[in-house]
Amino acid sequence: MEQSTSVLILGGSGQAGGDAAALLRRWHPALPLTIAGRDIDRAQRMADELGAATAVTIDLRRSDLGLPADHHYSAVVAALWDDHLNGLHYAQHRGLPYLSISSGLVEIAPEVVASAQRAHATPVLLASHYCAGATVLATLDAARALDRIDTIRISAVLDELDTGGPAGRADLERWSTATSAGLVRRDGVFTWIDGSAVQADVTSTDGTVLPGQSIAILDVPSLAHATGAPNVRFDFAVGESAGRRRGEAASFEVRIDLEGAGPAGAPFSTSRYLVHPAGQRPLTALGIALGVERLLGLRGEAVPPGIHTPETLIDPAYAVERLVEIGAVFVGAQVNR
C-alpha cells in the first residue's frame, strides 16, 4: 500500500519513538515519517538520520497540536504520555489511525471512553501493554502448543538502569502512584489483590531470585480473553538483570509459564524466557512498529474503525519472527519452580 502522507510520531525523538521509526524505515524504506517533539533540533537530527523524514514541533496542550492546517498525515503515534489526549482527538477529527503506549491499565478509562464515543471515526490501537504488546504476542505464540490453557504466569525483570528515557520513567512513576495493587484473573474472575497476595518471587535467567509483585497491566486481560485461561498473573521485579550481573549491558528478561492440556488432552506445561541483551528498548520499539505497520495496511487487511489491542491485529508468529530478527532469543526454563 503506497503512503503519500506521513506517519506523525509524537515523541519520535525519544527512545521508544525513535527506535520504532528506525524499524519502520528499515522495513519500509519509502514510508514517509514525521518526527514530532518539543526540541526541533533533536527531532531534525533524528529525521536526517532516518531519511525520507521531516521534523516538527508540537504542543500537546493544543487540539491542533500546534501543527499547520496544511500538514497531512497517514497515522498518529503517541510514543509519550499525552495527558490532554489531543493526539487522539487530532487523529479522530481527521480520520487517521491512532496508536498509544502510555496509558496503562490504571489510566486507560479516559482514552477508552474518548475512543468509544467516536468509534466510527478511526481505528485506535491501545498498546499500553508491557513493551507495547511484544510480551503478549510472544506468549500467544507459545500458547499454540496447548489445546487448553488453564494458567498463564508472566514474570518480568526490569533492570533499574533500563527504565527508558524521561517519558518511560514518568510512566512508571504515575502507574506506581495510581495503585500498588495487582490485577489477576483467578478462577475466571478478574480480582484485585494486595498485601501478601501481591508479593511474588521473580526468577532471572541465571537463577537469581528477585523480590517482585503482581501488577495491574493490560497484558492480564488481553491474555485472559485471547486464550480463555481462567488464571492469569503478571509479576514484575525491578533490579539487576542477568546481563548486568555478567558485566554486560542491562538485559531484558521475561519468563512465560503456561499450564493446561496438550493435543491429546493430557496435562501439559511449558516454560521459556524471552531475552534481549540490549534491554527493553528494542522490544518496545518493535511493538510500536508492528502496530503502525498493521494500522497502515502495510501488512494484513485494512483495519476497521474501533478500539483494538495488539493481539487482535498482529499475528503472534509474525511478531516472533520480528523479535528474533532484532536479536531477541527464547531460552528454555525448568517447568518446576
From TrEMBL:
Source organism of the structure: Streptomyces zagrosensis
SUPFAM superfamilies on file: NAD(P)-binding Rossmann-fold domains
Superkingdom as given in the UniProt entry: Bacteria
Record-linked InterPro entries: NAD(P)-bd_dom_sf
Organism taxonomic ancestry: Bacteria, Bacillati, Actinomycetota, Actinomycetes, Kitasatosporales
Protein name as it appears in the record: Saccharopine dehydrogenase
